[in-house]
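Write out a record, focusing on structure:
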Amino acid sequence: MSWLDQLAEHVDELRHAGVLQQNGQSATALPILDRVLAAASDPATRAYALVQRFGALINLGRIGELAAAMAAAAEAVREVPDPYLRGQMHAFAALGAHLQSNLDRGVTHLVQAARALAAVPQRDSETAWGWHDLAMAYSYLGFHGQALTAVEQAREIGAAAGLAPEVFAAPGIRLRNAVALDHHGDTDGCLRVLRDMDAELSRYLATDRLRPGSRTVYGYALARRAALGEPTGPEAARWLTGGGDSARTRDLRHLGSVCLSIASGRPDQALAMLAAVPVSAEVLGPAEPARLRSICHASAGDHAAAHAADRYAFRLAALRIDQLRDGYLDGVAARLDAQETHRDPGRYGDETLTDPLTGLPNRRQLERYVETLLSRGERAAVGVCDVIGFTTVNLRHGRHCGDLVLQRIAGVLHRVMRRGDFVARFAGDEFVLVLPGAGPHQAAEVARRIGTAATTENWQALVPGTSIGLASGWSEVGANGRGLSAALAAAAASRKPTTT
């Protein structure tokens, strides 16, 4: 008996929705999941359906709906202490964080997903697919080695459940690995991986075990080889058709057509196609369109433009490495802080230093941070940031939506701050920002970035009909002996709406 068979309700509908998603038909699976949720009362059934619905929205690229879907799934999973559900939810949450460009949060979910799935006692098909989805999340976030390890775990568990290894071929993992090698200058390594994928496609065709959702992945691998100058025959265009309704599939079709235009000696057409249709930076990395532009220019004989595009592609690829390094440093710092707390429990007692809703430092941790900063004789810019329209959100949509807005604002602030800056939730809808060593000009730039980020958020999907904005004011601590209380009062008095 599989994990899914143990549910009390709607097992057949949920199994059908799962098969549709595995075959790249998330748009068809979504209304099935919604019907189950409308009728189901069993907590485990609802939790499973909510997690799968969250995954379907990720596949479809409906980013504006992810925050609410994840909150609903996470709340349901908390009520059902099941490691499989928890692992699956965190694997999807890592993908969601990736789509929202929050690498730090994504890495946290990866760790939580791996720990939860490792605790699952069942070796059934659902657990195998959980490891497969975790492998996808690892791959999208750039952890290619961990992705390969996770997909091997999926194959091993799947074999115990009677599934063929080909079911978990996961060509997308190796495709992202291949283009990452090319982005960093190892084109020969990229071609080796793409050739292996071509040989694998031939084997799967012979056994008739190719998953429909893998079509465009193999098609893009063929087209990318052709763009790099290796003949692949006429098959690439055929494989770029079909493959499901996901946002990934649409982008792969488009970029594959760009590659085929390059291969057929039409670089100008390929450049026009790249300019006409933007693609998500999350499918093959932000560097892929720039790398394709470089190949276009080289094919047209404009080597100066090709070199400039290659430099830009390399810089975009290197940004991810810098983010990972920053996250590693933050992780080490957090571990040292935890060790210090453990060594001296009397110093901290039972104090809570984190806001449970947003995960940000709270007022107590802010005060301690500024006290330490001032004790070293340092100074910093201090900002007070309020949410415009927050009262209306609570009145019109309820406090749950208000909480989701605060979580989204916390993500916006965390995303735009400079390395080493400090963000805390102070009270209610009020956030405090501390920029060590910064003066008025740096504070103004951060305020501008906050305004831009807040304006580009899709608030209407979260709280339809309600306008959301941010107001911020700035002051300094450490200047002329000014302490935190005086700085906060001065910043609050100077608050005005942030502008882009």
Remarks:
- The chain has a mean pLDDT of 84.
